[in-house]
C-alpha cells in the first residue's frame, strides 16, 4: 500500500494537464484501477485481516482522491492565471490618437449653463444616477399609484427573488437632487444639477439616456416672478440674444404647484432655427413653485420657506443652439460628427469671454 501511495502521489504531482490527471484517477480509482482491485481483495481476507486492511485501504483511497482534487484545482488556477496574462488588456489606453477628440456639445452646453447660473449665485449639486424609489418618486409627491410613474417609462433594477423592497430605478429626471440637496444643506438654497437621466424611449427625438439640468431656489421670499426673471436671463444669456420672448403655459407636475411649461419664440425659416423671432414656439423646460409636500419630505418647513424649481433638457437646448438635427447622433461616438459639432478643448465658456465664441 505504501508503494501504491508513493507511486500515485508522485505521478499526481507531476501531472501537468487535466486529462493526465483523469488518466491517473482511472488507473488508481476507476472500476479496474489498482486501488479498486485491492478493495475487491478484501472479500477474500479473514475478518482479522480485513479489520486492518479495510480502513488502511479506505484511507489510501481518500488520500489519493484529495490529491487529485487539489491538483485539479491547482491546474485550473494556473490555467486561469495564464489566460489572464495572455488576454490582459489595458482598457484605460486611449483607443484613438489623443489629438483626435474635441469637446462634446453636451459637455460644452453643460459648461455654458453652469457659467450662466453661477453668475446668478447658483452652485452645482450632484446626485446618484441609480436612485431609490423614494427620491425619484415618493419624496417628489409621486406616490405608488401615480400615473406619472408609468408615463416616465422607468428603468427598474432587478431585486432577488423574495426581496420585496421596491426596486431602485435609473433616475428619470434630475428632480431627486432637489430632495438630496435640501436634506444635506437645508434652506435657503440655490443650486443647479446637470446630469444624466434615463427613460425607456428611443426615436429621433428620444434616447434612453439624456441630460437635464435641474434648478432649485428656496428662500423666505421667492415668488413666481423670480422664476420668470431667472429663466429669461438664462435664455437670453444661453442663446446669446438680447431679446427673447418666453411663454409660460400652465401645466402640471406633482412636485410643483403652480406648474408651468416654458416655450421660447422662434422661427424655422429656411430650415434653420432662429431664437427670439418668428411665429413658432418651442418647449424647452418644465418649472413651477416647489410643492409644500416636497419641502416637507426634504425636512424643510413650508410655512417659512418656498421657492421655485425647473428642469431643462440639455440635449434639447444643445440641438437648438447649435442646429443639430438628430438627437441620436449625440451618442454615436462618430468622430466625423464630433469634428463637425464639437468644440476646442481650450475654449472654456465664460460670460466675460463669450460662451460659445
Ligand atoms: N422633472 C420634470 C421632468 O423631468 C421637470 C421639472 C423639474 C418640472 C422641476 C418642474 C420642476 O419632466
Description:
α1 (2-14) runs parallel beside α4 (47-86), α2 (18-29) packs antiparallel against α4 and α5 (105-119) packs across α11. The protein folds into 2 domains: 2-86; 104-344, Bira Bifunctional Protein, Domain 2 (BirA Bifunctional Protein, domain 2, 2-Layer Sandwich), CATH 3.30.930.10. Strands 1, 4, 5, 6, 7, 8, 9 and 10 form an 8-stranded mixed beta sheet that branches. The chain starts with a helix and ends in a 16-residue tail after the last helix. A hairpin with a 2-residue loop joins β6 (246-253) and β7 (256-267). The protein contains 12 helices and 10 strands. The longest helix has 40 residues, at 47-86. It has helices spanning 2-14, 18-29, 34-41, 47-86, 105-119, 133-136, 147-151, 176-185, 224-239, 292-297, 314-322, 335-341; strands at residues 123-124, 130-131, 169-170, 189-198, 209-219, 246-253, 256-267, 274-275, 280-290, 306-313. Bound molecules: phenylalanine (PHE). Residues 173, 175, 253, 256, 286-288, 309-311 line the site of phenylalanine (PHE).
In terms of structural class, how would the helical and strand content be classed?
A: alpha+beta
CATH secondary-structure class of the largest domain:
Alpha Beta
Determine Rg (CA atoms, Å): 34 Å
What is the annotated CATH architecture of the largest domain? 2-Layer Sandwich
Give the count of structural domains: 2
**How would you state the average pLDDT, rounded?**
91
Q: Kindly report how far apart the N and C termini lie.
A: 89 Å
What fraction of residues sit in β-strands? Answer: 15-25%
What is the number of E strands?
A: 10
